[in-house]
Amino acid sequence: MSKPTMRDFARFLTAEDGGMSVEWVTIAAACMALLLGTFAIVSGGTENLATDTAQLTANMDVANGFITPVPITASTDITAD
């Protein structure tokens, strides 16, 4: 094997082979970092919202029927005004 020369070094610096792979790896890493950062920020708010909703609905009373039932007959008008 011969000793590398300045011409070999210049050819190495100007070569574009493999550059696309490096770009895709960098873009994928940036997307993953953005995804993890977004998840870290949003997860705290989502957890708080779920806790607040659970506390609010735990104290609600649910009726087991209608208070005053309305009989439906053939003459009942159910069309929108």
3D architecture notes:
This protein has 81 residues and is mostly helical. The protein is 60% helix and 0% strand. It has a domain at 23-52. The chain has two helices and no strands. The longest helix is centred in the middle third of the chain and has 40 residues, at 19-58. The chain is rod-shaped, with a radius of gyration of 34 Å.
Shape: rod-shaped
Report the C-alpha radius of gyration, rounded. 34 Å
Number of helices: 2
Strand portion, in percent?
Answer: under 5%
Characterize the biggest β-sheet: none
Distance between the termini: 92 Å
Mean pLDDT value? 80
Number of β-strand runs:
0
Task: Please trace the helix and strand order, writing H or E for each element.
Answer: HH
Helix amount:
55-70%
Taking pLDDT < 50 over at least 5 consecutive residues as the criterion, the unreliable ranges are none
Structural category is mainly alpha
Keywords: Membrane, Transmembrane, Transmembrane helix
Organism: Roseicyclus mahoneyensis
Protein name: Flp pilus assembly pilin Flp
Quick structural summary:
The protein has 81 residues and is an all-alpha fold. The chain is built from two helices and no strands.
